[in-house]
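At this stage, I wrote out one protein, both as residues and as discrete backbone shape codes, and that material follows here.
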Amino acid sequence: MSDTPSDTDSIDYPAVFQALPGMVALITPDLVYADVNEEFLRMAGRRREEVVGHFLFDVFPDNPNESSPTGMRNLAASLRRVVETGERDSMALQRYDVEVPGLPGVWEERYWSPCNAPVLGADGKVELLVHRVEEVTELIRARGGASGDRDRVLEAELYTRARELQEVNERLRRAQARDREVALALQEAMLPTGRQTLRHGAAVRYRPAVGALHVCGDWYDLVDLVGGHRVGVSVGDVVGHGLAAAGVMGQLRSALSAASRVAEGPAQALDVLGRYAHVVDGAESATAVTTFIDLDHGTLTYSSAGHPPPMLVHPDGRVECLDKATDPPLDARPEPTRRPQAATTFTSGATLALYTDGLVERRSEDIDTGLARLADSLARHRGDDPETLADAVLLELLPPGGATDDTALVIVRL
């Protein structure tokens, strides 16, 4: 690797920030000004020491003379969304009056077009907010003065409609957030408890998609099987979002859990589940994989219905991809047919990993790349206990800002 500095090493980024032509501020997640550029100070009519280090709304409060000001409320809501979702948020045209510098109690009517964006840290969390704002007050005044009352009426109409749209969007966000919370609670109630996973020497993780307003239908299950020291481990994924997907997930998980307890093997359990999915609305294209583990004899039998293959990590670091018994998703065939089944062996200390596609699929790459990345991570951390291993895999495979799809992961030490 060359030791020659790159061209960017000589760029003075603080100077670049100060020279930006628009009004730009850096704000902490606690809404304290970390820095502002020269244009921001000039347009706001404030000195640096009056802004940097101060709470945003102490510097720019609402106009107390207005009967129902919305500037502070709307800006706070936008900034909170950026912190919570890690995604950019462009706001509608805002009226946000500003107190005239040097004239306490004198307020000036001002109009702004703001945009807020996140700056993510190494851990994927929002460290700073970039607050870029364009003032359009003069444009509104110029149009009103040049064309008379008609343009002023149109401008007022535009502003009113922008405010109404923002309020509708805010109500929609709140409704969707409530839906998401209910679905998450329902999903959590349906999934195995910590006592169950601890008894089986397993670690489980569920990560909702970052920025999504709805939870998806990922699920997992661990069940004791009849006859010897045997356990069934399954993972599945329902297409769709929200309460509907969570409800279908609960039905399929319960059906497979019951079928596994009486089935001869995982293929028969998936046969039963496929027949059941055929009469469940919303189960179309759902996927599942189930494994039957015989700890007394060191054998593992598995079957998959359109799901990414489990990974078996042997104590020597060899990773076996369990992809010898794959079949289409549940309810993908007009008539249910016998599904394939395969078996392999393991020795004490091996590790089994089951997961959903949110862990390995990325829009910009082939899924084999994600599978290889998972196999490498599992092999390198195979000596860790299941809880530590699960955390390491999520840290290495999920994007810094979180995945765009839900992710379920089950790690079992055999």
The radius of gyration is 28 Å. Confidence is low (pLDDT under 50) at residues 194-198. The chain is about 35% helix and 25% strand. Residues 149-190 form the longest helix (42 residues).
